[in-house]
TrEMBL record:
It comes from Clostridium yunnanense. InterPro entries: Spore_V_AE, SpoVA. Pfam families: SpoVAC_SpoVAEB (PF03862). PANTHER family: STAGE V SPORULATION PROTEIN AC-RELATED, STAGE V SPORULATION PROTEIN AEB. This is Stage V sporulation protein AE. The lineage of its organism: Bacteria, Bacillati, Bacillota, Clostridia, Eubacteriales.
């Protein structure tokens, strides 16, 4: 039961940080998302984000900051096996399914809903 509580708290805190960035610091949603991705990448590079995911589960693996962590994780894993070129290919290897899903769902939404404009 505590796993769900911690997932809710950690995921909520990440979202609160994003909301504070937009409301108080007046950052655009694009700047906020980019900052959270970079923060996730930095924490992943330091090895701290995996510990957060282990502790909070979906509360840390669902927000956008997890995408930055996945980018770094993929680049580091592939760099170990194939060298410097792995830094580039590893990013696409580990994140391709999420990116593909986002493109497919956006396409379906565009077919189903009428855009404003």
């Amino acid at each position: 039961m505590m796993t769900f509580v911690w997932a809710f708290i950690i995921g909520g805190l990440i979202c609160v940080i994003g909301q504070i960035m937009m409301d108080i610091f007046k950052l655009t949603p694009a700047h906020t998302m980019s900052t959270l991705v970079v923060a996730g990448a930095v924490l992943g590079g330091l090895g701290w984000y995996d510990a957060l995911v282990k502790f909070a589960g979906a509360g840390a693996s669902t927000p956008i900051s997890s995408f930055g962590n996945q980018l770094v994780k993929g680049a580091l894993m592939e760099a170990e096996t194939t060298g410097l070129i792995g830094v580039l290919t590893g990013i696409f290897d580990i994140t391709s399914s999420g990116i593909s899903a986002a493109i497919i769902f956006a396409f379906i939404a565009a077919l189903v809903f009428k855009p404003k404009g």
